[in-house]
Specification:
Blueprint: H1 20-25, H2 29-41, H3 46-51, H4 53-56, H5 64-68, E1 70-72, E2 84-85, E3 97-101, E4 104-108, E5 110-111, E6 115-117, E7 120-130, E8 144-149, E9 160-163, H6 167-180, H7 195-200, H8 202-207, H9 212-223, E10 247-255, E11 267-270, E12 273-288, E13 291-299, E14 317-319, E15 331-332, E16 343-347, E17 350-354, E18 356-357, E19 361-363, E20 377-380, E21 384-387, E22 395-404, H10 443-448, E23 458-462, E24 467-469, E25 483-488, E26 494-504, E27 509-517, E28 530-534
Antiparallel strand pairs: 1-9, 2-6, 3-4, 3-9, 4-7, 5-6, 7-8, 10-13, 10-22, 11-12, 11-21, 12-13, 14-20, 15-19, 16-17, 16-20, 18-19, 21-22, 23-24, 23-28, 24-27, 25-26, 25-28, 26-27
């Protein structure tokens, strides 16, 4: 049995509590009261149950040795033996415990790993709870104890030794099964089961009810054996228009280390909303652009029941558009859509709180200890997490990058089969910007292409200035007077900056007004490749006092 918190027992301090005149008149009073309190404070005794009631209700005490509460004699004993050898004393109190062999109750004063010492034979005590149905109206809700008086007798090797000091814990265990393990209250579990751990994660077991892992757990709990499940559903012919919803799938990126496959059969939770949870029925890794992601299947249930609580959403993610030095209070980003009005964001090693936001900036930032550079990731601190095989010391965290569920086609699609890839053609209407005269262009083209877009466009170029662009570009992307940065190809290293003097759109040439190099650079290396990136224009607001 797990160790209780140390609490002082009266029998250990009684000699310091009695008045001196009682000790003078009654020399044996100390020993008398000490023995009385020992009879009340032994494990399972009345005083022990009252003082340690909160300790008895800990599920961690439901270890196999306590739940079963039985061992066996390893050698014959006579009616006068004071030392009893058994196969194991684990789960029995260290001193003043009660045990029962056949019809005899025995008390003992000490124990080793395989023996009980200082045995007092033919003892009397509580041997069980009588919870049978009563016919008396006055005792409908009462439970009585079974108290036995016994005599010393001989016992043979192999006889059962019952632990009478854990009767209360065993009774609590039976009642707890009815409350937290419905449907299993009348079933005996395997002797080696850690019941406390099973009860803690019973919610995950019931949520995953019906999937293969839950069936494996059930057989291991009841019989202690590993099983192999044959899913006959895989051999069934299914109609193409089935309305049953079985699983919801999310795509996630692993944060840190761990073995995601060990989450199968466990429950995962949203970090900022623990009421949002789901039971994992399968995990499949896949690779995109050299990076590994995981497709997590959450068991939903059947058509008339949803076992997923809350909604798993994709947390906000964007990139920084400008450098934000340490202790900055403002971060400029590509977009703040998907982020809360206030909240916490993460960039690199920074965990940042902000108090407000605009469409592309976070204000009132605190927590920027390391400077944020242009194009650094900025994301919400929302994650989902679970524990490998239910082990609370092995936490795994994910960041959701996509949700694959509840696809609702506008019409019946009969020529699409499972496993086919779907692609997004565009996220809106593509309006060309051709070279026709204004009188020949449709109004939509004139209107859409008359906007001046304040975006941070990046282009691959050749030359030392003027620059020749290697890709097509729109007139709204580069215009006279724009400030551009020169960067090394495929990096965020800024070499210099310049203002656009003019643009020859037909030849894709950008003429520079001047180039200002940033130390330690003094010129462009003709052997290196470079990109140019437009610097977003910002409005300077002055507060007058």
């Amino acid at each position: 049995m797990s160790q209780f918190d140390k609490r002082i027992k009266v029998n250990t301090i009684i000699e310091n509590q009695l008045p001196e005149f009682i000790l003078a008149d009654f020399p044996n009073a100390t020993e008398f009261f000490k023995q009385y309190y020992i009879s009340q404070e032994f494990q399972g005794g009345p005083s022990d149950l009252l003082n340690n009631f909160d300790q008895y209700l800990k599920v961690d005490n439901l270890v196999p040795e306590v739940v079963v509460g039985v061992t066996t004699i390893s050698s014959d004993i006579t009616s006068t033996d004071t030392v009893i050898s058994v196969s194991s004393t684990k789960g029995f109190p260290d001193e003043y415990g009660l045990l029962k062999i056949d019809d005899e109750i025995i008390s003992y004063t000490g124990k080793t790993t395989t023996t009980f010492t200082g045995c007092i034979r033919g003892f009397s005590g509580i041997s069980g709870y009588n919870v049978g149905v009563t016919s008396s109206l006055l005792e409908v809700n009462k439970e009585t104890l079974t108290f036995d008086k016994t005599s010393a007798s001989s016992h043979t090797t192999g006889s059962s030794v019952t632990n009478l000091s854990v009767l209360f814990v065993q009774e609590f265990y039976r009642k707890m099964k009815k409350t937290f393990l419905p449907g299993l209250e009348n079933n005996d579990f395997t002797e080696n089961l850690d019941v406390g751990n099973f009860v803690k994660f019973a919610r995950s077991f019931y949520q995953s009810k019906g999937i293969e892992e839950s069936i494996r757990i059930l057989f291991k709990v009841l019989y202690g054996v590993e099983t192999r499940i044959l899913d006959l559903e895989q051999n069934l012919i299914k109609p193409s228009s089935s309305e049953y919803i079985r699983r919801e799938e999310i795509v996630a990126d692993l944060i840190g280390s761990g073995e995601p496959v060990n989450l199968i059969g466990q429950t995962i939770f949203k970090s900022n909303d623990l009421n949002t949870s789901g039971s994992v029925s399968g995990i499949q890794p896949f690779t995109r652009s050299g990076k590994t992601y995981y497709k997590i299947s959450l068991f939903v249930g059947y058509n008339d029941r949803d076992l997923i609580e809350g909604v798993f959403t994709i947390p906000g993610k964007t990139i920084s558009l400008d450098n934000a030095p340490a202790n900055s209070s403002i971060i400029s980003v590509d977009s703040t859509v998907g982020f809360g009005t206030t909240g916490t964001i993460i960039s690199g090693d920074n965990t940042i709180s902000y108090t407000s936001k605009s469409i592309n900036q976070f204000f009132g930032c605190s927590g920027i200890s390391v400077g944020i550079h242009t194009a650094d990731d900025v994301r919400s601190d929302e994650t989902v997490f679970g524990y490998e095989n239910g082990d609370l010391s092995k936490k795994i965290e994910f960041r959701i990058t996509g949700v694959l569920s509840e696809l609702e086609p506008s019409t019946d699609i009969r020529l699409v089969s499972e496993g086919e890839k779907l692609f997004v053609k565009n996220i809106g209407e593509k309006i060309p910007n051709n070279s026709l005269s204004l009188t020949e262009r449709p109004y939509k083209e004139i209107f859409a292409n008359s906007w001046i877009y304040n975006t941070s466009s990046r282009f691959q170029v050749s030359g030392q200035g003027p620059f020749t662009l290697k890709t097509e570009f729109d007139s709204s992307s580069i215009k006279n007077g724009d400030l551009f940065e020169i960067l090394k190809r495929n990096s965020q290293i800024i070499v210099a900056n310049f203002f656009v003097k003019d643009v020859v759109y037909q030849d894709k040439i950008v003429n520079t007004d001047s180039i200002s190099y940033i130390a330690p650079f003094s010129s462009l290396d003709p052997n290196d490749d470079y990109d140019i990136r437009r610097v977003i224009q910002k409005r300077l607001v002055l507060a007058l006092q």
